[in-house]
Amino acid sequence: MAESRQRESSHTANQSKQSQEQQADERMRETLLKADTFTNAPKVSRKTSTKEEREVIAKQQEEEHKEAEKLAKTATKGAIGRWWTRVQSGPNKVTFTMAVVALGVVYGDIGTSPLYTMQTFLNGQGGIQNADREAILGVLSLVFWSITLITTVKYVLIAMRIDNKGEGGIFALYSLIRKYGGWLAIPAMLGGAAFLADSVLTPAVSISSAVEGLKTIPVFEPMFRENANLTMIITAIIILLLFSVQSRGTESIGRVFGSIVMVWFGFLAVVGVFNLSNDWSVFAALNPVYGIRFLFSPHNAAGIALMGTVFLSTTGAEALYSDMGHVGRGNIYFTWPFIKIALVFNYFGQGAWMLRNQHNSALEDVESLNPFFQMMSPGVRYLAVALSVTAGIIASQALITGAFTMVAEATGLNWMPHLQVRYPARTRGQLYIPVVNGVLCVSTLAVLFLFRDSEHISAAYGLALTITMITTTVLLAVYMWYNRHKVGAIVFSIVFLSIQFMFFIASMAKFLHGGWFTMLLTLMILTIMVTWNDGTKIERSQRRHMKRKDFLPALEKLHGDFRIPYFADNIVYLTSDSEMKRLDTDIFFSIFADHPKRARAWWAVSVQTTDEPCTREYSVENFGTDYLFRVKIKLGFKVSQSIPAYIHQIMHDLEHTGELPQQKSQYPKLDADPGVGTIKYVLIHKALMPESTISERGALSLQMKYAIRHAAGSPVKWFGLAPYNPLIEVQPLFLSTRRPPRLKREANNLRQVESNEDVLALTKSSAKSAKATKQSAAQASETKPARNQKSAASGSQQRQANQRKNQ
């Protein structure tokens, strides 16, 4: 009976203990589940796209369906209808919306050229009183044929047909032809650096020259006369506002600007035609003989420097080519005739006004006479100034968007660090780079405060752009040469290099007056490109990869070695290697360096950005194991790189399929996911070893590359890992190393050791000699039988002693 009660009591105690343990487990699970309410850690949705993306895709599909129906109806309306259908189905597609965007994004720079080209011409000739009919017809002829040959023929008709998947610009062109020779990187880098340098000056000169038009309005004239810095202050405010709205994307900006540009170019044409109504004879300047004759005439006060003035009328042509990927080639083809006609009417209208007012004594004392504003009545100037300021902003926008595109392409060529890129619109060409935007803004303001007004800024303006045009011509000629147009390549090179070298020589006259600043910027940007390219080549030459048979045995042994504690349940390495069947040696040595990083699972993850806006895909290679996973994540260019959230999804997916053993978390953690064990993210950087056998240039390139990477920002932010305390490891760059000579032991220590050894040897020798002498004396005093017996005993003892000694 007592035993029964004892068993019942023991059973009750066990049940109570189990109940307490269950309650403790439930409280622990509740704590784990509640962790999400405290951290709000990001998680992936069950849907593969957002509501906004589905709405946009549905709207786009509906528009495409309507467009297809419209084209089907058009195709039945004869030859013109079939031609239009072919155009709308190819790369030259034209849409009204993007044509408006093209006006706002592409033509801003070339649209502001009439503001200062003829003003610079009059200053070079010594005033309007020195500009006779020969001079005016000569400069108009040079301007017309420069726009026709450089902008229309070279860029619109030739360069824009050579695109890289719809993208234009010097870097996209280089990507097409770099297989023809390594030397082609030199003109590509030089031209790209010059274009980016010129992007700094364009906002300053375009906006300041437009704001200075306020001085021509009688109401504002006293205000500007009293405050000499007022123009600079207004220009700085406009520049700050312009760069602050870049994050919204060029598509939304282009739509607003596009309608204004239509008004602006219409205004240019109307004002020009109004002044032409009294003298249409200026169209005699369409004959190129007038331009050539005046250029080499002794009557030309500016000499060859006149071509530097003429070149101002073509600025914006390179931006037109670079921005092709933003708006499409067909939309530029569609809008360019309207732009060209408006520009010609305005330039020739200014020429007609100068012919009428050559002998106007009231204009002789006007400082920095500008025909663009002077040919209008005072009442019209209000509208002209308002539109010109807006046009200056648009001109700046064209170069800013072109700079974004150029930097993104340079990054793809590994000529610049991988910067954070945002895509505000659904078109990949519409991009925004925060770091570049900030650098451009600060640099533009620095140029404004350094040169203070448009007259001094224009001295530096255009010089670098001539270098870009020359290098673009070289690359275009190489493309034509290797694509069965050798005769065309020769003719193209001779014609356009002759014209553009003339522009360059003329622009060099500006070097000491401000051109040095543009060249300095060009050299700085070029240095970044060259050093980054060299550093990348050195790093890639040392990169090694391991096959499955090389790395799997060691990882399998470490995974099962229970003597080593877990470094983390999961170790995730971010790598740029996209190959799925191999492992980077950097990851392998990171796992085994110092104390081995044992884990339940190792992950090597690469992230690839696709050309589609909303791609969300991944693929996995597990090498036949349940502890090593090679993951490639494909994200659309508009998808944020929330890598931690996607890693958790992939782990849960693999647990569900049984490829990854379950990892239930026992304690709360930052990511608030109890279904997955702890995760440690690791990024690996390289460092140069002091003993490396490398040239001084190579070492300098690597040091500069690492300094630029540090200044550009850590990749931790790009992948969204900053809140998760990732581990950043530095591994040596395994270049061939010099073998340093062996160390030599100090002489005094060496003599002491040698002396000790001699004393020890002498002591041993004396002991042996004394022992032998003693044995000889003892043997001589004994009798022969005794000696025999003693000798036998002594021999036996000696043998035993020898045996013990040997043992």
From TrEMBL:
<dbReference type="GO" id="GO:0015079">
    <property type="term" value="F:potassium ion transmembrane transporter activity"/>
</dbReference>
<dbReference type="InterPro" id="IPR053951">
    <property type="entry name" value="K_trans_N"/>
</dbReference>
<feature type="compositionally biased region" description="Polar residues">
    <location>
        <begin position="11"/>
        <end position="22"/>
    </location>
</feature>
<dbReference type="GO" id="GO:0015293">
    <property type="term" value="F:symporter activity"/>
</dbReference>
<feature type="transmembrane region" description="Helical">
    <location>
        <begin position="227"/>
        <end position="245"/>
    </location>
</feature>
<feature type="region of interest" description="Disordered">
    <location>
        <begin position="1"/>
        <end position="68"/>
    </location>
</feature>
<feature type="transmembrane region" description="Helical">
    <location>
        <begin position="489"/>
        <end position="509"/>
    </location>
</feature>
<dbReference type="Pfam" id="PF22776">
    <property type="entry name" value="K_trans_C"/>
</dbReference>
<feature type="compositionally biased region" description="Low complexity">
    <location>
        <begin position="760"/>
        <end position="781"/>
    </location>
</feature>
<feature type="transmembrane region" description="Helical">
    <location>
        <begin position="296"/>
        <end position="321"/>
    </location>
</feature>
<comment type="function">
    <text>Transport of potassium into the cell. Likely operates as a K(+):H(+) symporter.</text>
</comment>
<keyword id="KW-0633">Potassium transport</keyword>
<feature type="transmembrane region" description="Helical">
    <location>
        <begin position="382"/>
        <end position="410"/>
    </location>
</feature>
<feature type="transmembrane region" description="Helical">
    <location>
        <begin position="333"/>
        <end position="355"/>
    </location>
</feature>
<feature type="transmembrane region" description="Helical">
    <location>
        <begin position="431"/>
        <end position="451"/>
    </location>
</feature>
<feature type="region of interest" description="Disordered">
    <location>
        <begin position="759"/>
        <end position="807"/>
    </location>
</feature>
<dbReference type="Pfam" id="PF02705">
    <property type="entry name" value="K_trans"/>
</dbReference>
<feature type="transmembrane region" description="Helical">
    <location>
        <begin position="257"/>
        <end position="276"/>
    </location>
</feature>
<dbReference type="InterPro" id="IPR023051">
    <property type="entry name" value="Kup"/>
</dbReference>
<dbReference type="GO" id="GO:0005886">
    <property type="term" value="C:plasma membrane"/>
</dbReference>
<feature type="transmembrane region" description="Helical">
    <location>
        <begin position="94"/>
        <end position="116"/>
    </location>
</feature>
<feature type="compositionally biased region" description="Polar residues">
    <location>
        <begin position="786"/>
        <end position="807"/>
    </location>
</feature>
<dbReference type="InterPro" id="IPR053952">
    <property type="entry name" value="K_trans_C"/>
</dbReference>
<keyword id="KW-0406">Ion transport</keyword>
<keyword id="KW-0630">Potassium</keyword>
<feature type="transmembrane region" description="Helical">
    <location>
        <begin position="136"/>
        <end position="159"/>
    </location>
</feature>
<feature type="compositionally biased region" description="Basic and acidic residues">
    <location>
        <begin position="24"/>
        <end position="33"/>
    </location>
</feature>
<feature type="transmembrane region" description="Helical">
    <location>
        <begin position="180"/>
        <end position="207"/>
    </location>
</feature>
<feature type="compositionally biased region" description="Basic and acidic residues">
    <location>
        <begin position="49"/>
        <end position="68"/>
    </location>
</feature>
<comment type="similarity">
    <text>Belongs to the HAK/KUP transporter (TC 2.A.72) family.</text>
</comment>
<keyword id="KW-0472">Membrane</keyword>
<keyword id="KW-1003">Cell membrane</keyword>
<protein>
    <recommendedName>
        <fullName>Probable potassium transport system protein Kup</fullName>
    </recommendedName>
</protein>
<feature type="compositionally biased region" description="Basic and acidic residues">
    <location>
        <begin position="1"/>
        <end position="10"/>
    </location>
</feature>
<feature type="transmembrane region" description="Helical">
    <location>
        <begin position="515"/>
        <end position="533"/>
    </location>
</feature>
<keyword id="KW-1133">Transmembrane helix</keyword>
<keyword id="KW-0812">Transmembrane</keyword>
<feature type="transmembrane region" description="Helical">
    <location>
        <begin position="457"/>
        <end position="482"/>
    </location>
</feature>
<feature type="domain" description="K+ potassium transporter integral membrane">
    <location>
        <begin position="99"/>
        <end position="549"/>
    </location>
</feature>
<dbReference type="InterPro" id="IPR003855">
    <property type="entry name" value="K+_transporter"/>
</dbReference>
<keyword id="KW-0769">Symport</keyword>
<keyword id="KW-0813">Transport</keyword>
